[in-house]
């Protein structure tokens, strides 16, 4: 997969050299290219923002540098009409979920446009949408100082779904939120050696070797944790079970 990120803070994305994403890049599974937005300005101050029309606090990112940067990203692609899917992190976007991560992981090419200040002039998004798929994405109901951290979140969630990136091909199957066996339930607690530590014991069932019992215990634990932390997901899970077994509430 190829990923382009246009930003005024390329240094903010240094963690993309580390760990899982860094290894995927080193192995050639992920081709990440960072672009400095200010390279696409034409004034001595390398200005990327201006005051908002209609008034209000803060500054808005100017359309011209963004448009030229995105044009350059498209032009650096494989050609023959190939365009990236443009991901615009914004608190006003659609929620980032495991399902959206899976959809993005199926794309060959993503470009990210993380904003600073109050956001990017809307015409940049509308203009891009006429040429390429655009998805505005929020990573949660809070406001960050800029979209770069959201890019890190989205890239990591997507990268670990790419074929061959995780060591064990099975290891994201049981993830919290992954569609499938434990759909809609959070993952339960996990333990490793030693069996007793500071007087706390590993639940006996996990040492029993009885795989059916262990699976049932894990489902129960997932349910208990989901009920405590995400009752909204339990309600969704129950609706799913009702539908699956064609029951009426
Ligand atoms: N930029 C600022 N806040 C954000 C959020 N919650 N999600 C995505 N991008 C953002």
UniProtKB/TrEMBL annotation:
Catalytic activity: guanosine(37) in tRNA + S-adenosyl-L-methionine = N(1)-methylguanosine(37) in tRNA + S-adenosyl-L-homocysteine + H(+)
Domain tRNA methyltransferase TRMD/TRM10-type: 1-235
InterPro entries: Alpha/beta_knot_MTases, tRNA_m1G_MeTrfase_C_sf, tRNA_m1G_MeTrfase_TrmD, tRNA_m1G_MTases_N, tRNA_MeTrfase_TRMD/TRM10
Binding site for S-adenosyl-L-methionine: 139-144
GO cellular component, one term: cytosol
Keyword terms of this UniProt record: Cytoplasm, Methyltransferase, S-adenosyl-L-methionine, Transferase, tRNA processing
Keyword check for Cell membrane: no
Subcellular location: Cytoplasm
Gene Ontology MF: a single term: tRNA (guanine(37)-N1)-methyltransferase activity
Pfam family of the protein (one): tRNA_m1G_MT
SUPFAM superfamilies listed in its UniProt record: alpha/beta knot
CDD domains: TrmD-like
Protein's GO biological process: tRNA N1-guanine methylation
Domain of life: Bacteria
EC top class named in words: transferase
Subunit structure: Homodimer.
Function: Specifically methylates guanosine-37 in various tRNAs.
Family the UniProt entry places it in: Belongs to the RNA methyltransferase TrmD family.
Protein name, entry field: tRNA (guanine-N(1)-)-methyltransferase
Biological classification of the source: Bacteria, Bacillati, Actinomycetota, Actinomycetes, Kitasatosporales
């Amino acid at each position: 997969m190829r990923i382009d990120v246009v930003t005024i803070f390329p240094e903010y994305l240094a963690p993309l050299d580390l760990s899982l994403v860094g290894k995927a890049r080193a192995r050639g599974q992920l081709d990440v290219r960072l672009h400095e937005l200010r390279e696409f300005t034409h004034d001595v101050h390398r200005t990327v923002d201006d005051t908002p029309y209609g008034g209000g606090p803060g500054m808005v990112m100017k359309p011209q540098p963004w448009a030229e940067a995105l044009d350059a990203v498209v032009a650096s692609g494989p050609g023959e009409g190939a365009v990236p899917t443009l991901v615009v992190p914004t608190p006003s976007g659609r929620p980032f979920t495991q399902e959206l991560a899976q959809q993005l992981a199926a794309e060959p090419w993503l470009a990210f446009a993380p904003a600073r200040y109050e956001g990017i002039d809307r015409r940049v998004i509308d203009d891009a949408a006429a040429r390429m798929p655009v998805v505005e994405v929020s990573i949660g109901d809070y406001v960050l100082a800029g979209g770069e951290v959201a890019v890190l979140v989205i890239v990591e969630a997507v990268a670990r779904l790419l074929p061959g990136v995780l060591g064990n091909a099975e290891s994201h199957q049981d993830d919290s939120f992954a569609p499938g066996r434990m759909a809609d339930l959070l993952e339960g607690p996990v333990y490793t050696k030693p069996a007793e530590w500071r007087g706390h014991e590993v639940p006996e069932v996990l040492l029993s070797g009885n795989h059916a019992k262990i699976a049932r215990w894990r489902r129960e634990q997932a349910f208990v944790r989901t009920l405590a932390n995400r009752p909204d997901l339990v309600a969704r899970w129950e609706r799913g079970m009702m539908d699956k077994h064609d029951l009426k509430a």
